[in-house]
Amino acid sequence: MLNKLALSGIKHRMRDYTVLFSGLMIASAIFYMFMSLATNQAFLSSNSPAAATSFIFGFGIVLLAIITIVYVNYANTFLLSMRQKEYGMFMMLGAKSSKISRMIFIETFAIGAISTIIGTLIGIVATGFVSRWLIGMLDMQVKHFSSFYLPALIWTFVFFIVIFMFSAIRNSVSLRRTKVLTLLNRDSQPVKIKRNGVLKAVQAVLGLILLAIGYFTMWFSGNNPGAIYLGIPVALVTIVGGTYLTINSFVTAVILMLKRRVNYSQKGLNNFTLSQLSFRINDYTKILSMVSIMFALALGAITVGLGFNNQIDNVVNGQNYYDVQVTNPDAAQQKRLKDLNIDKKVVYNYKTDGKKVYYRTSEFKKQPIGYSQINVKTMQSKLGTTSDIKKNSNAQYELMNTRLPETRGMQTEFVSDQDYNAINSKETSTVLIKTNSFKDNLSEIKAISKAEIKSYPALKNAGGDKYSAYTLINGFFSGLEFMGFFLGIAFLAMLASCLMFKILSGANGDVKRYNMLYKIGTKQKMLRATINKEIAVLFAVPAILGIIHVLIGLQLFVKLLYKPYMNIEIPFAIFIVLYLGYYFLTRYLYKKIVLK
Amino acid sequence: MEKIVEVQNVEKIYGKAGEKQFKALSDVNFEVKPGEFVGIMGASGSGKTTLLNILSTLDTPTSGQVEIAGQDITKLNNNQMADFRANKIGFIFQDFNLLENLTAYENIALPLALQNKPVKSIKPSVMSIAEKLGLTDILNHYPTELSGGQKQRVAAARALVHQPSIVFGDEPTGALDSKSARALLDTLTKINREDNVSILLVTHDPFSASFCDRILFIKDGEIGQELKKEDATRAEYYQEILDSLGTFAE
Ligand SMILES: Nc1ncnc2c1ncn2[C@@H]1O[C@H](COP(=O)(O)OP(=O)(O)OP(=O)(O)O)[C@@H](O)[C@H]1O
Ligand SMILES: [Mg+2]
Hints:
The complex is a heterodimer.
Chain A: H1 2-12, H2 14-38, H3 41-47, H4 52-92, H5 97-137, H6 150-177, H7 180-184, H8 197-223, H9 228-260, H10 262-265, H11 270-319, E1 324-327, H12 331-338, E2 342-352, E3 356-360, H13 361-366, E4 369-374, E5 381-386, H14 393-400, H15 405-408, E6 411-415, H16 417-422, E7 427-435, H17 442-455, H18 459-462, H19 466-505, H20 507-519, H21 524-553, H22 569-594
Parallel strand pairs in A: 3-6
Antiparallel strand pairs in A: 1-7, 2-3, 2-7, 4-5
Chain B: E1 5-14, E2 22-32, E3 37-41, H1 48-55, E4 63-68, E5 71-72, H2 78-88, E6 89-92, H3 104-114, H4 119-132, H5 148-160, E7 166-170, H6 178-195, E8 198-202, H7 206-209, E9 214-219, E10 222-228, H8 234-249
Parallel strand pairs in B: 3-8, 3-9, 6-7, 7-8
Antiparallel strand pairs in B: 1-2, 1-4, 4-5, 9-10
Bound molecules: adenosine-5'-triphosphate and magnesium ion (MG).
Magnesium ion (MG) binds next to helix 1 of chain B.
């Protein structure tokens, strides 16, 4: 009988359960996605040259595990907040508490098991999808990666079974311990409102000081690489502490200030929104701090990942001046060249007698040759052009690599037109093209390079052109970039779902409030607006802090990466779009629960 | 004389056509004059809450007309209904329904803020109603720091602060002990007399009902009987109510 009642209770709250299930499925899906990378040693070692990778992923697993536990904990609170009244009622009607606690145990565990199984399946599909998307979008080369990876599957199952076991035990114990009356009246439990101005002020100042120390440390250890081993732990501790204190005090202070400004607060539902927030912030400090730190780490991972991508550009463009080089182009190749967006084009001819290679000096006078020059100290490259090639060894080196492999080892001579004409051998012509941007013309360049290798198979191993340098370097950095992206997206999805759940778990308690506001004549539009505002603030606070953390945190990489701030808007935009998606989802679900 | 509330041939049927239907109100007719204190009594399930929800635009009648303060409220759209509730109606609920994260003052001020009243006018309005209801000392308290009686008086202040045409109460004394209930009813009577506010009270309780000028008895969705106080004292009226309830129940 009771089981039947409990089941019918679930039916009536289908919408809430849908939220719960989808949330838990997201959690296990993300966990699987992450594990499919992190536990795949072959993938890690073949895609990253750095020994630190395993360590970074180990660290990532620990962090993700912590977030997941917190997350399941919130989801669990959400479940309890839905069910306790009903179970309280059963108990009031005389159901034994041992029976009730067994029921909640089974319910929690069943929900966990079902959502984990489905979630992992989603995870496998999503992993395939995301990896293909990333590889396609960023022209990556990733080895030893497959979306289905058994050890990851096992780890995910074991991990979730263990935490749901704990949740189920916790729920059943907590139901058994709580008095029936408390269960029935949970919604109207008094809310302690702490008002301690001095303490808050001290916290605010301390929080800002800690943040300042953390930021300084990151800047300092980025610019003095030796300090990094002490710098990172110090920064981590101070920033976590500073974030917590700042949110706890500073944000509350701002809300109080707004409340005191009667002209603002006494308009419409502003005062209600502010009160909801100030009461929430107390309760949310921990999660908001966690979200802002995670936000920073995730955004940082993507930004640094993309930083490696910029690195590719930098290194590749430093290799060769010309983007394309073709030898004796045939009609088809000529046609391909036409598709390029050409900035500069030169044609040099040479003859060889089997020992030496001869060019005409006059050709270089007429068409100066471009070359790249790497400063060994800074590892920065510089591009230049010269018409006096005899005196420029960089230009000579560049020229040498434009020839077919079999003549590259020969000595190069620059001779007068007369002498050149006297040489009795076949002439070879080299077309060199610099496009407006190597990256933008990548697909055409790729086609040309392929056709070139087809005509001259020796080029396959010898390389020398920019495209083959690109494939080499891209392969080297892609793994790192892929990991950064994957790490970042997994973290973001997790932390945003965490925040979403925390907010939704308060929704059941809000139903009464919004209903009352509705009854005394608040328009639906206004109710929706106040919900939007409230949730927007809860999402914005950690995001803003997180973005500041990242902007300053990138200082850690100034010596490691070429221009870490370059193209920073791309990862930020990706991130903000995903995060906004979560915001809209949350406020949609919240309204579904709270409003009629 | 004009009427504050005029209800004509109101019928309410729950359940869609084709499904199982239930007639909660049938052919209800009555009116409330300005300054009247009217009670509605009836057994559980007789349709009291249904009637009150219709009067307060929270629900719409299946057929019939309801005019409040000269306006046909059955013809309003959702936004107009919300405005109507915010401007013309005050509510007192059985379970207080205060917002526990706002202070008493802020709770009372809420309807004025909702109407976007000039900020300067809010404080005087709140203070004046708070004084009338004896709440001046507890305005900065949060609801959890108040007793049940105090909470209900705060709720009453919130219902009255914007000077509505009529105040509706659904069992407002239902959750109060007899002393607090009496204090609340005394206050409502005083406001009803002094400020000429019309009040419509739904109640089970003959004692609460004895504060009214007139009582409508509702049974199975129909108004069966009306009992006027006229010149009777409250004690006499109380006895009359008990007698009526006895006969009415048969
Ligand atoms: N939403 C609804 N759908 C179907 N029937 C309803 C609905 N609301 C109320 N009823 C029915 O209408 C009748 C009148 O209900 P109402 O709530 O008005 O009674 P009441 O007089 O307020 O009772 P009480 O004194 O117990 O509060 C009841 O029989 C009830 O079952
Ligand atoms: Mg009722």
